[in-house]
């Protein structure tokens, strides 16, 4: 399977605000803007990011969130859905009750209008057992090597992970990663990203040192050049980047402007030498939502209808 895709799905926010149901486990959230101003800022940032991705050659399917949904995190669809080349679609169990409303049949129907969906595998029943796995937030896939990197947290339960990997026929490398305060990092995709040739990783967050070494060795074994970021860079969302592809299959590195400016000049040069960099300001979304450029993108590997 290819590591990157040209097609992505993004959900335009209708009622974005800092979600109180997620703030306990998401230390990246920084509440502090009134809801109306937050929604206006988030929508402007969303549109700017979509424009930057399209300018770089990425095919973006934008779906509007429902106005009356009380779904403040609908802008992060990668947590509840993943779409695969054989037509399979997986739906994931979400920790916050108000995030479960994001799994909408209308979104799937909109995707189905343009792409071939085969089997739909719904893992959301695990919510009844208090077990969660929040899609490609919880897991960073190395598709080429059929591997998932997973840092454990309340949102990434080993039992759900096992159920998914059995269906995908993937293996997992599971480890602990903590922020500078020692708390578990809520999603793997804020501390690392894996592309076709490059991997961005906050190595100092991975505990203990033996686990850090294991992650490094696995990445290097699969030919990934590691761009190591520190806690300050991770807090500026340098780990929350994603490699996509333009129509010709060339790499596009998508990230926030905050993340781009937090990379060192040498790291910027490495990224730019390996593909096109597409970035846009996402400060409101990152501060209030605690997620950013990568979280906003649901990769779409489904076959396109003719």
UniProtKB/TrEMBL annotation:
InterPro entries: Amdntrnsf_FN0238 (IPR014541). Residues 14-40 are annotated as: Disordered. It comes from the Bacteria. Gene3D superfamilies: L-arginine/glycine Amidinotransferase, Chain A. Residues 16-28 have a biased composition (Polar residues). It holds the Pfam family DDAH_eukar. PANTHER family: AMIDINOTRANSFERASE. This is Arginine deiminase-related protein. It comes from Vogesella indigofera.
């Amino acid at each position: 399977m290819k590591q990157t895709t040209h097609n992505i799905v993004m959900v335009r926010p209708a009622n974005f605000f800092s979600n109180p149901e997620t703030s306990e486990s998401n230390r990246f959230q920084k509440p502090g803007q009134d809801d109306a101003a937050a929604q206006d800022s988030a929508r402007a940032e969303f549109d700017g990011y979509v424009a930057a991705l399209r300018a770089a050659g990425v095919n973006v399917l934008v779906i509007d969130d429902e106005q009356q949904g009380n779904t403040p995190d609908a802008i992060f669809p990668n947590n509840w859905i993943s779409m695969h080349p054989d037509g399979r679609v997986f739906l994931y169990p979400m920790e916050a009750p108000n995030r479960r409303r994001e799994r909408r049949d209308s979104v799937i129907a909109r995707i189905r209008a343009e792409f071939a969906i085969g089997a739909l595998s719904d893992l959301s029943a695990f919510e009844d057992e208090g077990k969660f796995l929040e899609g490609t937030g919880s897991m960073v896939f190395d598709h080429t090597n059929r591997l998932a990197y997973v840092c454990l947290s309340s949102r990434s339960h080993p039992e759900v992970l096992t159920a998914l990997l059995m269906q995908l026929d993937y293996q997992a490398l599971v480890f602990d990663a903590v922020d500078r305060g020692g708390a578990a990092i809520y999603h793997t995709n804020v501390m690392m990203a894996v592309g076709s040739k490059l991997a961005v990783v906050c190595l100092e967050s991975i505990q203990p040192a033996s686990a850090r070494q294991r992650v490094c060795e696995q990445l290097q074994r699969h030919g990934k050049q590691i761009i190591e970021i520190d806690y300050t860079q991770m807090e500026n969302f340098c780990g929350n980047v994603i490699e996509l592809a333009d129509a010709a299959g060339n790499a596009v590195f998508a990230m926030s402007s905050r993340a781009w400016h937090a990379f060192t000049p040498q790291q910027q040069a490495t990224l730019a030498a390996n593909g096109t960099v597409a970035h846009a300001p996402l400060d409101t979304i990152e501060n209030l939502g605690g997620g950013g450029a990568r979280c906003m993108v649901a990769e779409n590997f489904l076959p396109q209808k003719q």
